[in-house]
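@here heads up, posting the sequence + SMILES for the 2-oxoglutaric acid run so it's all in one place. Ping me if the SMILES looks off, I pulled it from an old spreadsheet.
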Amino acid sequence: MLADRTECLGLPIPYRRHWAFFACCAYPTSQNDLTKNVSGRGMNSGAKSRTKFVESRGAGELKFLSAKTLGLTKNLWWLHLSVMAKKSDSKGDNIMPKYRVLSEEQVQSFLDNGYLVVRDCVDLSVANRWIDEAYSRLGYDRNNPATWEKDIVWLDHKNFMPIREVAPKAWGALLDVIGGEERLETQTMRLRESGHFTSINSLEWSDCFIVNFRRGADKPWQPPSKNVSGWHKDGSYFKHFLDSREQALLPIVLWSDMLHQGGGTFICPDSVKVVARYLFDRPQGVNAHDFDYTEILSKCSRFEEVTGKAGDFFILHPFTVHASSQNVIGKPRFMTNPPVVLKEPLNLNRANPNDFSLLERATLHYLGLDRLDFRPTSAREADWVPA
Ligand SMILES: O=C(O)CCC(=O)C(=O)O
Ligand SMILES: [Fe+2]
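bot reply: prediction finished. Complex structure tokens:
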């Protein structure tokens, strides 16, 4: 339990052990106090002013100010923590960046599989309102499949809401993956060409649904495999580099249930490694339509069907190769895949490894590297303009 709580701080292992020890002493009865103090931002004052600490970024920066209840002088603790910080730094291991909402399992899943899941995090009253409106935008009667003219449709957006409001838990998870709100692009970008959404605002979600009504329902359902058609990587509007910012995540938002054989997006989790290497080998960049998916998939062996309930949210590494699937169950599926744009390209060579976002850390992990001074050898290109 304590280990979970202290995880909120994302302290290096030696810190975590000592902090847990300290927490036990200072808060023998109140887990809640501990949670409040440990997970808060910046300067926190403990209940009844028993303790004070300042939390700041990076290993060795936890500054203990007083610990009267422990009967230890602040100097002693300060010295002790400084020594631990030096030990940790000099070994260069035990690096654990700070995640505010992601659990250890979610972080591990992103590293191992290229994706993580945040369950039950979208406001379903908004989802249902937008779905109702989508039927009328399309001129389809939701109760009469005969009116569903197309098997699958890509809608542009009509309604928008800040992610922070429509899915607060998802917002926190997204920020954890990219390394904080300050790294997120705030400028809305308008795409010059699109068969789907016409603009991108990374702070908002919208009803630019991909509705799989009954794609391929006239044939027996095929499980995910490299033989299925339509595998691709998102981001048709820019030249792709290892560190591209234009589509830094592949989010999959479930506005309706995504049931087995009901149009769940097919994904290839081990493609993240293969695509990372593919882009590493091509510092000149790859135009969106020039990816050789036959070559990429020939090196992959994991193929999965994404399933979940309305309100679930999947965060996938942008290198994940994926595809639409057949929907043979007669229930339309509504999802969106809103790109996340960063202000700057990924920095895979940060001076302090604690400053790597999970996304950067994962990208390096797929390449088997601790850091990389990546430099594109041709100009970046994106077919968009500020809105
Ligand atoms: O329909 C799906 O499940 C995936 C659609 C997709 O990948 C896309 O439109 O880029
Ligand atoms: Fe896609």
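MO: The longest helix spans residues 74-91.
MO: One more: The longest strand covers residues 250-254.
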